[in-house]
Amino acid sequence: MLLNPEKTLFVRGATPALLLSDAPVHDALPVLTAPDGAVPRCEGWSIVPQLTLCVVDGPGEHGLVVPALVAPVLDGTGASTEPGDMADWCTDAEQAGGAVVLSLEQLPDVLDWAHLLGSGTSRGGFVSLLA
What we know:
Elements: E1 8-12, E2 17-21, E3 41-49, E4 54-57, E5 63-66, E6 73-75, H1 86-96, E7 98-104, H2 113-118, E8 123-129
Parallel strand pairs: 1-6, 2-7, 3-8
Antiparallel strand pairs: 1-2, 3-4, 4-5, 7-8
């Protein structure tokens, strides 16, 4: 399933994140509760970060493709909130061995990680690179 890149937000960092809104895989992902910030692995899911497309593949027929080259990328390191570069996000994901994938009802205006990880309204977890 193709997901409109306007419904995504790629966030750079030591452990990069991919935020999804209105994603067709929302109900297939596990409910995420990580109030202490320790994000659990999302078993049975994998991610393939590429400059032009990012694929999130789940069990069975669940999965999605994001046209990544035109998707928004933010620098989540705290150094900047300026739009980043997709190639850098892909490098972050490769170095981390995957990315945190969060499915939300809507993308947040402000990245409040404590709320996103601890409210019980997000779905997802850490998704490993496809081996």
